[in-house]
Amino acid sequence: MKNILIIGATGQIGSELTMRLRKEYPGGNVVAGFIRGAEPKGELLESGPSHEVDITNPAQIAEAVDKYNVDTIYNLAALLSAVAEARPQLAWKIGVGGLYNTLEVAREKGCGVFTPSSIGSFGPDTPRDNTPQDTLQRPETIYGVTKVTGELLSDYYARRFGVDTRSVRFPGLISYVTPPGGGTTDYAVDIYYSAVKGEEFKCPLKPGTFMDMMYMPDALRAAIEIMEADPTRLKHRNSFNIASMSFDPEIIAAKIREYIPDFRMTYELDPLRQKIADSWPNSLDDSCARREWDWRPEYDLDAMTRDMIAHLRTKFGIAAPEVRKEALEPAF
Ligand code: AKB
Fold first, then answer.
1. Which of 170, 189, 244 to mutate to test ligand 1, by most ligand atoms within 8 A of the CB atom?
2. Strand order in the sheet with 240-241
3. pLDDT at 329 over 80
4. 328 has pLDDT over 50
5. Average pLDDT over residues 128-155
6. Euclidean distance between CA atoms 267 and 77, whole angstroms
7. DSSP conformation class of 123
């Protein structure tokens, strides 16, 4: 039986990961850790325990771990890349101070810890294409600095104190459930919302800006599988490159047009996001994750696009064009 605490359970990844973990470990406690002002609601609230856990408050982390006999912590508290640039001190306090608090509680109470890193942990000096697992990491954003620090600190706690820390470097994550907030890769979510609603999409990044992206179901599976992986096979811990698709705005727009032919996209560049994206890799080499814990993505751009459009149409009560056409035609 696993007893799991998710710190940041009401965020983009947390809201879906908590539900998935509750299905995966039905006999255990899967505790939704939230901060005041971002309380869980609906199914997230009703399907299991929740506890106020502000990652900057170590006593609250320890209290939740004790109360629910937690053996594994998913630390999902972070400011995403663009918003972190506006609030670098807070980004450090949450990303590094919060991780330190989590690792200390884990050391004292014997918990495993998952803390996602990101493609943002790389910088402009990193090889851009097929970025290797072990390579130069000199990010220029505070987000990247916190992620590299997090990777190093987590490896240190594993080596020095035997804390079972594991992690993956997430690409941009795409989902129809909880929207992201303040990331550089957010456009790849927003574009589907505009397309399904029949609105023109103003893309904040220029054509040719390639980044790795991943559909949320694959990302959730990665977060669970890495924590379940056989430790004797792991040569790396913090953090594994994982990948499933890489595209630029023109490629995703063309894919959407295969299903929504009248979708329109124009460009309205966001200089901050463009600068950040330009400093990140185009695509990652995930062969270490494939070798050490059998990582395999299931969704490519086409499968993800079909699923996103279908779910967003349901979410907004928008009929698919074929259905709309039939509905408009006389029944005789
Ligand atoms: C962001 O854009 O900040 C995140 C990330 C790639 O880590 N989605």
1. 170
2. 117-118, 168-170, 240-241
3. no
4. no
5. 98
6. 31
7. -
Q: What is the residue with the minimal CA distance to atom 4 of ligand 1? A: 183
Q: How far is the CA of 282 from the centre of ligand 1 (A)?
A: 13
Using a 6 Å cutoff on CB, does residue 84 contact ligand 1? no
Q: What's the one-letter identity of residue 4? A: I
Looking at ligand 1, which residue's alpha carbon is closest to its atom 6? 172
- Output the CA 120–ligand 1 centroid distance in Å: 7
Confidence (pLDDT) at 1: 63
65 membership: H or E segment, kind and range = helix 58-67
Cα distance between residue 216 and residue 175, in whole Å = 5
How far apart (Å, rounded) are the C-alpha atoms in residues 328 and 106? 60
DSSP state string for 14-63: HHHHHHHHHHH-TTS-EEEEE-TT----HHHHHTS-EEE--TT-HHHHHH
Quick check: bond before 194 cis, omega within 30? no
Is residue 25 part of the annotated active site? The answer reads no
Tokens of 139: 């990010």
Residue closest to 212 by CA, chosen among 78, 304, 95, 291 = 304
Query: Per residue in 37-57, pLDDT tens?
Result: 999 999 999 999 999 999 999
Q: Write out pLDDT tens, residues 279-320.
A: 999 999 999 999 999 999 999 999 999 999 999 999 999 988
Task: Kindly report the pTM of this predicted structure.
Answer: 0.94
Grade residue 239 by pLDDT with cuts at 50, 70 and 90. very high
Residue positions counted in the chain: 332
| Phi and psi angles of residue 96, each rounded to the nearest 5 degrees, phi first | -105, -50
Cβ contacts of 275 within 8 Å, gap of 6 or more: none
Tens-place pLDDT, residues 256-279: 999 999 999 999 999 999 999 999
- Give me the phi and psi of 284, to 5 degrees please: -105, 150
Q: Are 218 and 297 in contact (CB under 8 A)?
A: yes
